[in-house]
Amino acid sequence: PEPSTQSAGNTMDSYACRRRTPLQHHNMVLTDALQLLSENAEFCENEGRSVAFKRASAVLKALQGPVCSLEDLRGLPCLGEHSRRVIKEILEDGVSSEVECTQQSEKYQAMKALTGIFGVGVKTAQLWFWEGIRRPADLQTFGKKLNRAQAAGMLYYEDLSTPVTRAEADLLQGIVGEAVGAVLPGARITLTGGFRRGKQTGHDVDFLITHPEEGREEELLPKVIGWLETRDLLLYQKIHKNSYLEAKEWPARSASNMDRFERCFTIFKLMLPRVAPQGSTQAPRAPEAQEGGTGESPGWKAVRVDLVVTPISQYAFALLGWTGSQLFERELRRWAGQEKSMSLSSHALFDSTRVRDGPPRAPTGPKGHGLSVLHLESLTGP
Ligand code: TTP
Ligand code: MN
Ligand code: MN
Ligand code: MN
């Protein structure tokens, strides 16, 4: 029997992947607070605590109505003592002193600003914080040497911290689709990540690329990048080759969501459609960071785009893995492992009771290894 809890006449499953989690829900104030604590735990490299707050937040998102009293939480899963204390404070006082305190703290604010730079992770931001760096502008004062990604991150900081809109994602889909179609006829792209989940904004745009004929997708990315660079559409790009061959464990059992697909982290130079100067329609905004201060609009915006290439045999798993959210993926893998004795990754799904050592080296995908691969439909639950 799988764990579930009765609450207010509803069954609340303790695995987030087995519940409906709508984008619009009734407990925004509470989930924002818990998510801030989760983010802060990440900044302190406390992954366990970070995930615990994310799980608690996800439970509140799944509720049919607003939480009005602690009674409403009775029997709900994933709400630990700490989360309940924060919720109680907000219900009673409107705010949580711990959340307020964290948000105002020098550490949180510095880590938020520094990890907001493309190419800067928690580890680097922490080192810089210990050295006394608090804001991106301090990096120059302290004479820090930046790698190529971080330098681009600083150059386009304003644009990259402005949310990407759905309209911009659609424009990019057109451009990437044209590039992919030009270098490999028949290749297809799919919009993944937050936009595939229906979000109206995102921090980047994610695309999955494949070709219906297995193997034709090999070495595709350098050509796509070349096509885009020739047209001056990229501000930054870094290709990571696929690493199926080096895979020691197959599929990876770690909780990490890094996979072994060929990928490219890019910053696109997205030309914004010129709007006719009439009535109330607005011209594209001028990002100050890239401007000489003339007040003239450059007519483009820097946007982070992730390109991922998968062989068609792994497409379903890659699509599932790259759609997110991060918590959904983590919970799905946890559920597969703990409840179904299956091992799920962005590459394949295995019956881990039948597979001990994984497939032979240089796998071509989940097919043809005598392994048990379930149809995805049986995983999607209610
Ligand atoms: P993100 O683009 O980081 O997140 P998102 O699209 O859900 O949200 P945002 O709007 O902020 O961009 O990653 C997209 C999904 O891809 C994420 O749910 C997990 C997955 N993923 C991998 O499978 N491997 C990876 O290496 C990364 C970075 C993400
Ligand atoms: Mn994304
Ligand atoms: Mn993100
Ligand atoms: Mn991404």
From TrEMBL:
Summary of the function given for this chain in its UniProt record: Gap-filling polymerase involved in repair of DNA double-strand breaks by non-homologous end joining (NHEJ).
Catalytic activity: DNA(n) + a 2'-deoxyribonucleoside 5'-triphosphate = DNA(n+1) + diphosphate
Localisation per UniProt entry: Nucleus
Ranges that cross the membrane: none
Annotated positions binding Mg(2+): D204, D206, D306
Species for this entry: Paramormyrops kingsleyae
Highest taxon listed in the record's lineage: Eukaryota
Protein name (Swiss-Prot/TrEMBL): DNA-directed DNA/RNA polymerase mu
Entire-sequence positions represented here: 124 to 505 of 587
Keyword Nucleotidyltransferase set for record: yes
Keyword tRNA processing assigned: no
Subcellular location, principal: nucleus
